[in-house]
Recover the amino acids of this structure.
């Protein structure tokens, strides 16, 4: 091994995820974990026994309370992220998620070939999200929307605030709460599958690329090789491009 | 039942009540009860009494299509006898297959007469769904398809009441694959107010309440987004259920013969659809306010909800997942998908170490190199 030619890279620190994006990410993660756990408990409660009078206990009440609080956090956090897609840095911009150009689809296809089919070829460089990841996040935003609509739709009849009441039209759209509840439950599985794949791919990118993918959601920065930086930046030599 | 074509002043409801032998006291009891059911304040009792005293009876045509007559049965069993005696027996018998005395030509003639004489004034009550498949041959009365009869009767109707789940949303005869194409009324008749009174059957008092509201105020009651009267369908059975404290406490019946069932715990885990069902069962109850399904230890099956027959299993919370066989519910499908994902990721991880080993080793070696170069 030691006899091999080694090129020790000079790495450049790039501030990718701004503090609000990191806050959004972890708040979202916590809210989703809370929502999934309490959601399962609401769908299929534990078999509990008690000698206490029912009025002395509020087990299911608390589970539902946590679900609703987490739902509100999730909802406003989601709204905030949509806003940040317009005012945040280039890696947080909405253009990272919604395919608007041929280049986007080309990159998606390339990522698919290199990362998923493991075909041989030049590794792609993605400083923020790669196109494939961005597009999948775009889909998660739709899943967020479905959960917010069906969730607040079901909650509307219990809510006293005008906000959840505004969603009362949703169950009417599906002919009642029975189907709405099921859509809410089915859509949850998307979140579980997403989380598993998401965490795996973070490990994968960190392992294969060595650019600090895993810690980037902590400190906000990733590292790219000096030559990558030169290539990417050669047409705008001024480092103060944005912000 | 009069067949003369000359419009005559119909007797008022109160006159009919008296003729039937009820006292003023009985009448007022009935009025107070109805006022409470339709969700009005005490002060409205006088208004309802006055309306029933002064207004001539509203002619009603009651049609039966694809149904089991449980709506009619429920209606004639409403808790106050005046409901059956006056609202149905005396007042609306212009035409109803189940309860009218006439038959054949005379019956059809009576309906035609009412339709002509009271054009634009009568209330059309429809029990049952209309099969539109195969040109409507699945339900024909007197040589006409139910669609023809409905259209004819709906033309001159002031308002239409869709009794029960059949007329409101199709009920079991519209369950997949719906061979007769059973269709609810609101999808067939446009341009007329349709009041949906779902339930299989709806509660008798609810049915009576809807009619009393129409008579008293001369307009349809306030409806929700789904076209149901808000007075009866704005709350979930769950919200008015006397077992709700057990739900909140997390105490549930696990199976029908367990200790918890004897203690009267919440029926949520044996499939109660109360949390998704909008009806007045928990408040008005059935059979003179004696009981309702949950009180007798059976979970609510959500009979007043659209698609309750296709949308879920009666005794489980989860429901079958279309396209994955009868037994698969969302969680089964989810767990399988999770397993497949985990296997795919494991495969991917193995492949990564093989296909990208050069890359990974370069990173490792680069790191090791720096480690060696560092002193101590």
């Amino acid at each position: 091994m030691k006899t091999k030619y080694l090129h020790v890279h000079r790495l450049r620190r790039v501030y990718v995820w701004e503090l609000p994006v990191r806050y959004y990410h972890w708040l979202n993660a916590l809210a989703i974990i809370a929502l999934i756990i309490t959601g399962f408990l609401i769908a299929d409660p534990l078999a509990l026994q008690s000698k206490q009078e029912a009025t002395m206990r509020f087990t299911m009440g608390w589970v539902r309370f946590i679900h609703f609080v987490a739902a509100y956090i999730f909802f406003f956090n989601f709204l905030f992220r949509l806003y940040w897609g317009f005012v945040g840095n280039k890696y947080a911009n909405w253009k990272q998620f919604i395919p608007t150009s041929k280049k986007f689809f080309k990159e998606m296809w390339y990522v698919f070939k290199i990362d998923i089919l493991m075909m041989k070829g030049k590794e792609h460089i993605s400083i923020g999200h790669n196109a494939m990841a961005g597009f999948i996040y775009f889909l998660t935003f739709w899943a967020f929307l479905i959960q917010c609509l069906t969730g607040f739709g079901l909650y509307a009849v219990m809510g006293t605030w005008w906000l959840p009441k505004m969603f009362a039209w949703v169950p009417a759209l599906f002919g009642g709460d029975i189907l709405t509840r099921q859509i809410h439950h089915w859509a949850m599985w998307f979140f579980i599958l997403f989380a598993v794949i998401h965490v795996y791919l973070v490990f994968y990118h960190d392992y294969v690329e060595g650019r600090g993918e895993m810690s980037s959601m902590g400190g906000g920065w990733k590292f790219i090789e000096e030559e990558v930086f030169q290539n990417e930046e050669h047409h705008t030599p001024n480092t103060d491009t944005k912000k | 039942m009069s067949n003369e074509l000359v419009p005559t002043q119909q007797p008022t409801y109160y006159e009919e009540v008296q003729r039937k032998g009820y006292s003023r006291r009985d009448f007022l009891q009935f009025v107070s009860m109805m006022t409470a059911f339709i969700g009005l304040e005490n002060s409205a009792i006088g208004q309802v009494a006055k309306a029933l005293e002064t207004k001539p009876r509203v002619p009603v045509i009651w049609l039966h299509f694809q149904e089991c007559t449980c709506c009619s049965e429920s209606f004639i069993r409403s808790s106050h006898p005046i409901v059956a005696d006056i609202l149905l027996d005396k007042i609306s018998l212009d035409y109803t297959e189940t309860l009218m005395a006439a038959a054949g030509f005379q019956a059809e003639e009576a309906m035609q007469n009412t339709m002509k004489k009271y054009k634009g004034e009568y209330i059309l009550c429809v029990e049952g769904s209309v099969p539109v498949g195969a040109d409507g041959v699945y339900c024909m009365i007197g040589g006409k398809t139910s669609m023809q009869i409905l259209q004819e009767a709906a033309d001159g109707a002031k308002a239409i009441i869709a009794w029960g789940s059949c007329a409101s949303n199709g009920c079991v005869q519209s369950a997949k694959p719906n061979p007769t194409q059973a269709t609810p009324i609101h999808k067939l008749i446009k341009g007329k107010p349709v009041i949906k009174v779902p339930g299989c059957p709806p509660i008798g008092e609810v049915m009576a309440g809807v009619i009393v509201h129409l008579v008293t105020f001369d307009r349809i009651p306030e409806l929700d987004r789904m076209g149901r009267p808000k007075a009866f369908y704005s709350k979930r059975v769950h919200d008015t259920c006397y077992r709700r404290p057990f739900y909140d406490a997390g105490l549930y019946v696990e199976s029908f013969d367990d200790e918890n069932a004897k203690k009267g715990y919440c029926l949520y885990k044996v499939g109660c659809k109360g949390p998704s069902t909008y009806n007045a069962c928990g408040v008005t109850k059935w059979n003179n306010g004696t009981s309702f399904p949950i009180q007798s230890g059976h979970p609510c099956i959500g009979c007043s909800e659209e698609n309750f027959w296709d949308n879920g299993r009666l005794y489980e919370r989860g429901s079958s997942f279309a396209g994955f066989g009868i037994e698969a519910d969302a969680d089964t499908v989810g767990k399988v998908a999770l397993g497949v994902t985990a296997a795919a990721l494991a495969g991917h991880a193995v492949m990564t170490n093989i296909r990208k080993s050069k890359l990974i080793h370069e990173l490792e070696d680069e790191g090791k190199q720096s480690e060696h170069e560092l002193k101590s």
